[in-house]
Amino acid sequence: MDIVICDDEALARERLVRMVTHLGHCVVAQANNGKQAIAAVEKFRPDVILLDIRMPEMNGLDCAVQLSQLETPPAIVFCTAFDQYAIDAFKTHAIAYLLKPIPLEDLQHALHKATRLNQAQLQALPVQTQDLNSLTQHTTRQNIVARTHRGVELIPVEDIYYFFADQKYVMVRHKHGQVLIDETLKELENEFADVFIRIHRNALISLKHLEGLEMLDNGQYQVRCREIDEKLLISRRHLPHIKERMQKL
């Protein structure tokens, strides 16, 4: 893939160049602020941009918003030393948020994710015309943000099998494993009511991945998910509603 690297620190750019080259990709341009990055993207039309956040003249978040308005925007991977901008960063439809110093494995994982995004998918992303404070304020999220050993990861909602409450955290079981997030089931239930259904006081399951119900010897039911072996218990309180929803699938 063709990649643009944008960071105001020369040593940081050099390190990323070495890593990108080692992974078999091509660095077509470098920039030290957002304005230079936009010019480089318009000139070289890269597949991916590795973008720092705190930079002079134009920061990475403002740059990403403008890049998202291009007809064929590159996939955006933020590379920063600060984790507090992750939520705003993913509102610009970044595919990854990597924390410095960036391990080679994490960069490889992010670039592999970028290869799965074709231009048609990128063009289908909503054009951002609002400022960062109003981005996606009134729309349902398409991704869940989770802090993991990789730093900050983006989990597509469509890849999530279920949410399971675990003490003060919620475990997200998805196609590539599981992560913990600091959100409540009630908030998730309200936001994703069209695509997830509560099956127990501690669990929400994706209607898309709901395969069927099984009755246990004690008369209770459990739910089967497509693609995974785990089975979750259904509370008697929620069983009638689940059966009703399943008839409409």
Automatic annotation (TrEMBL):
Record keywords, A-Z: DNA-binding, Phosphoprotein, Two-component regulatory system
Sequence ranges assigned to domain HTH LytTR-type in this UniProt record: 144-248
Residues recorded as bearing 4-aspartylphosphate in the entry: D52
Pfam families for this protein: LytTR (PF04397), Response_reg (PF00072)
Sequence ranges assigned to domain Response regulatory in this UniProt record: 2-115
GO molecular function: DNA binding; phosphorelay response regulator activity
PROSITE patterns noted in UniProt: HTH_LYTTR (PS50930), RESPONSE_REGULATORY (PS50110)
Protein name: DNA-binding response regulator
Presence of the UniProt keyword Phosphoprotein in the record: yes
Keyword DNA-binding: yes
Signal peptide (residue range): none
